Amino acid sequence: MKTGLRRCSIFIISGMMMGLAFSADSLARDADEPGRRLTIVHQGIKRSCKVQYPPALLTEDKRAPLVLVLHGGGGNADHAERMTGFTEKALSENFIVAYPEGTGRFGKFLTWNAGHCCGWAMKQRVDDVGFIDALLTELIKNYPVDPRRIYVTGLSNGGMMTHRLGSALSHRIAAIAPVIAALFGDEAQPARPVSAIMINGMKDESVPWQGGPPGGRFSDAWDQTPVRPALEQAVFWAAANGCEMKPDRRETSEVVLAQFRCPEGRAVELHLVKDNGHAWPGGEPGSRRGDKPVSSPRATNVIWEFFKAHPGAMPE
C-alpha cells in the first residue's frame, strides 16, 4: 500500500498570486458553486474535505486564518457545516473554513479514530492524524492560509479527534476547541503549547460532563473506555500551556466557566452549558432524534472570538 500519496482535485489553474494558482475562469466558476471539495489520497484511502471562504480572499495579497471543523460520529462535512454555522462566520469574518470527513465502511457513517472512539475508523486504526497533517499541507499550498493561525474545532467524536490533533500536531495548530467531547486519561502531552477552549453540556448523556461510561444511541461505537470528567480536559491543557492549575470560576444563568491563568499568549477555558445536551450550543440539531441545542450561548461565536485572540507562534 502506498502511503502519503496526495492528489488535489479542486478548481486550481496556474497563475501567480502569493504562490497560489487561480485563474479568472476558475474564480467565476467557484462563485456559482455552493461549496468546494478538496480530495487527497492518504494510505490508499480517498479522503474528502469541503472548503469555504470569502471569494475576495483569492484576490487579496494577504493570508487568512484557517479553521478546521470536524463532524461528529456518523456525520459528514455538510452536517458539520449546517450544525455549526461556521461558513457564515467565515464569510463575515474573512477567514477560511474547511470541513474534513472521516471514514466509514462503504463511505457511510463516517467517524474519526480518536483512540477509544469511534466506530469503523477506531476499529480499523485509521491514521487520521496523518490525514489531517497531509491535508493541512495541501490547504496551505492551495489557499492563502496563514500557517500561524490554524485552528481546529469539532463536536463529539470530532471533538475527541480535536484533542488528539492538538497533542500530535502542536507544531502546526495554534488553538483547539473541542465541543461536547472528552479525554480518556491516556493522551500524550503536546510538544508545544496549544491554547484550548472546551464546551460541554451539563445535560449531555452521550459524553457525560462528570465522566463515566459513554451513553446515548451510539455508545456501542466506543471501546467502552470511560471518559474523564470535563474539567480534566482543561487541567490537561493547562499543564501543557504552563498555566496555574487552579482555575478562576465564574457562573451565569447559562454557563459555568473555568478560566486558567496562563503565560502571555496562551489560554485555557472550560464552558459548561447548563441546559445543553449532546448538541452544538446555538447551532442546529444533528437529527430529529438528537438533542436540541440551547439557543444561547452560540458556541461558534465564542470559539471564533477565542481563536482570533490566540494566534500561534511561527511553525518550525
Please tell me about this protein's structure.
- The chain is 24% helix and 21% strand.
- It is of the alpha/beta class and 316 residues long.
- It has a 10-stranded mixed sheet, sandwiched between helices.
- Helix 6 links the parallel strand 5 and strand 6.
Structural class: alpha/beta
Give the strand order of the largest sheet, numbering strands 1, 2, ... along the chain: 1-2-4-3-5-6-7-10-9-8
Topology, number of strands: 10
What characteristic shape results from the CA principal axes?
A: globular
Strand and helix order: HEEEHHEHHEHEEHEEEH
Tally of individual helices: 8
Distance between the termini: 30 Å
User: Radius of gyration, rounded?
Assistant: 19 Å
Poorly predicted segments: 1-32
**Largest pleated sheet:** 10 strands, mixed
Tell me the strand percentage band. 15-25%
- The portion of residues assigned to helices is 10-25%
- On the 0 to 100 scale, the average pLDDT is 87
Notable features of this structure?
316 residues; alpha/beta; ten-stranded mixed beta sheet; 8 helices; 10 strands; disordered N terminus
Q: Secondary-structure blueprint of this entry?
A:
Elements (H helix, E strand, L loop, with lengths): L23 H8 L4 E7 L2 E8 L11 E7 L6 H8 L1 H8 L2 E5 L18 H5 L4 H15 L2 E11 L1 H12 L6 E5 L15 E7 L28 H11 L7 E4 L3 E5 L8 E6 L25 H10 L8
